[in-house]
Amino acid sequence: MKKIGILHGKERSFPTAFIDRVNSKGIDGIIAEPVRIEKVVQGEPTEYAVIIDRISQDVPFYRAYLKNAALCGTAVINNPFWWSADEKFFNNCLATKIGVPVPKTVILPSYQLPPDTTGESFSNLAYPLDWDGIFNYIGFPAYMKPFAGGGWKSVYRLENKDEFLQKHGETGELVMLLQEEIIFEEYYRCYCIGGKYVRIMPYEPRNPFHLRYVADFSPSAEKLKEMEEIVLRINKYLGYDFNTVELALRDGVPYAIDFCNPAPDADINSVGQENFDWVVETAATFAIEKAQSNEPAKDNLTWGEYVKRSSSSQNLI
């Protein structure tokens, strides 16, 4: 028997529906259930062939558990080693190398000194920074947001330099991005599962949260194909099994705005019934594929092209 586990927190609609859908398929030798952890011993395998991770970004104990599980042969969705290393600024940097349009973006040191550091810890950092050069490059209005994390936490829309200086002072020890605002005609949020299944969803981030998947636009067949190709390219290089990519269309050009969402929203109350049904069905199909192909005690993780090409000293593109 090969078990598929889902590791989650207070989220309920997706985990429950996912488990029910896997089990309803009646695949011989495959069963799904919530992950149960009674103890974690170094180097010992779990009972799961596949684990879908929905919570370890908030629980370091779970992240350690998943790394040990992966080391012992569990296919963890998403790869916990890569997810631990990844963040939004790197993703933007990578996009510039693989031909994906992204907003102009710079990274900023934290406003306050990190714990256990002093001014001497930053002797390599010019002070003050070349603020005029940064502002001229990015332009205003602009967005400032954490270089890692999600959930629209600590995100600011800034109109000018004075507003930036005021708001940056509120960010404490967070390392922030300053990013060009893309004035878009259309916006899409795109699920990508297994590096091959894509769902393009019209999305209106300016609406109240519960209405963001209610939009009065849809892509042409040509634009749909172009966006699918971008979504697949991004996830091919990052190596995520379960991710969302947000694309903003300006003058018809899809700009990747946010594509580091490896525990993406899949709640029925926000994504809506049709999108929910798709993500449950597709996640179940992919998890079963991963369980059936799992080889005990081997590396069953997905590794992106960036890591694979770097390790073999190949050029990125």
Automatic annotation (TrEMBL):
RNA-binding is among the record's keywords: no
InterPro entries linked to this entry: ATP-grasp (IPR011761)
Keywords: ATP-binding, Nucleotide-binding
Residue stretches making up the ATP-grasp domain: 92-289
GO cellular component, one term: cytoplasm
Keyword Methyltransferase among UniProt keywords: no
One GO process term, biological-process aspect: SOS response
Protein name (database record): Glutathione synthase
Organism field: Segetibacter aerophilus
